[in-house]
Amino acid sequence: MTRSVGRIFSGFRCFGSLPFGNPPLKTQCSSVLFRTTSERTLMHALPKIFGRKPRDFSLPNSSWGKEMMQLYNHYNRLSKETTEGQEDHGEQWTRLPSYNRTLKYATGGVYLSKIIQSKARLFTRNIRDPGASFEYVIFFRQDKLKCACIFQAGHLLEGAPGHVHGGAIATMIDTITGTHASLLSAPVMTANLNINYRSPIPLGSTVLIESILDKEDGRKRYISCRVTSTDGSKLHTEATGLFLSISVSHLLKR
Ligand SMILES: CCCCCCCC(=O)SCCNC(=O)CCNC(=O)[C@H](O)C(C)(C)COP(=O)(O)OP(=O)(O)OC[C@H]1O[C@@H](n2cnc3c(N)ncnc32)[C@H](O)[C@@H]1OP(=O)(O)O
């Protein structure tokens, strides 16, 4: 039990950055998660245990439009160039892989059924039809002071006719600011979100969501966020969030 809780905690440290996909994250997470030979063996056996390698939802698919692809290529280029050139570590961006069963994959399949029900899926990744709901990819800067998310809103996210539902926008804001906070000090939970909706987001369009760390104070992380058009000229939404780092036992309380 204690060991399982320990592994879950390790998994949370990689909450937004899982041991598959991007090489820098793989190194970071695997050093935490798979220290023993048996754990490494388990890691190699994972595809057999789960049948196949989990789908990384943050990679391009056929539904991604021109703007989504342009921005993705932009951040991807910055990630590769700075990684290869080792020029400026502060400006180095990294793509975060994204799975629909984050904690299960982050912990190499070791989890407590009390926390993860077998049918549980990450809210933003539970519709497999490409382009129907939340298409997004998050990049973070290596110094973790800034995250950038490219978000294309699918037809299932309608609120006001022809526009994205405010709750869907809030979900994306919680996702990027929560991911940002968890990169700084996982595990975290959202304590407060304040959102101002400034201009509606047309359904099917692509927007840029950027988050910055405003302040750290003990267990508290204050993160603010702006949703804009991809060229930054139009402000759609502004938000601030407070995230509190928690102990794993907090999640076991019922
Ligand atoms: C991969 C995708 C990532 C997505 C991330 C999504 C994350 C989520 O959505 S989490 C789900 C939504 N959030 C929740 O359900 C959280 C529910 N709330 C809770 O569990 C608890 O209230 C929790 C954990 C936030 C805080 O509880 P606890 O750890 O006991 O802290 P507590 O002792 O009450 O407060 C600690 C400090 O924070 C402050 N604080 C707590 N809540 C708030 C709040 N809402 N507003 C302002 N300050 C607050 C307290 O005043 C206190 O301040 P100080 O230390 O200066 O006295």
Automatic annotation (TrEMBL):
Keywords: Apoptosis, Cell membrane, Cell projection, Cytoplasm, Fatty acid metabolism, Hydrolase, Lipid metabolism, Membrane, Mitochondrion, Mitochondrion inner membrane, Transit peptide. GO terms for molecular function: hydrolase activity. It catalyses: hexadecanoyl-CoA + H2O = hexadecanoate + CoA + H(+); octanoyl-CoA + H2O = octanoate + CoA + H(+); (9Z)-octadecenoyl-CoA + H2O = (9Z)-octadecenoate + CoA + H(+); decanoyl-CoA + H2O = decanoate + CoA + H(+). InterPro entries: HotDog_dom_sf (IPR029069), THEM4/THEM5_acyl-CoA_thioest (IPR052365), Thioestr_dom (IPR006683). GO terms for cellular component: mitochondrial inner membrane; mitochondrial intermembrane space; ruffle membrane. GO terms for biological process: apoptotic process; fatty acid metabolic process. Residues 162-233 form the Thioesterase domain. Its EC number is 3.1.2.2. It is a peripheral membrane protein. It is found in: Cell projection, Ruffle membrane; Cytoplasm; Mitochondrion inner membrane; Mitochondrion intermembrane space. Belongs to the THEM4/THEM5 thioesterase family. This is Acyl-coenzyme A thioesterase THEM4. It comes from Poecilia reticulata.
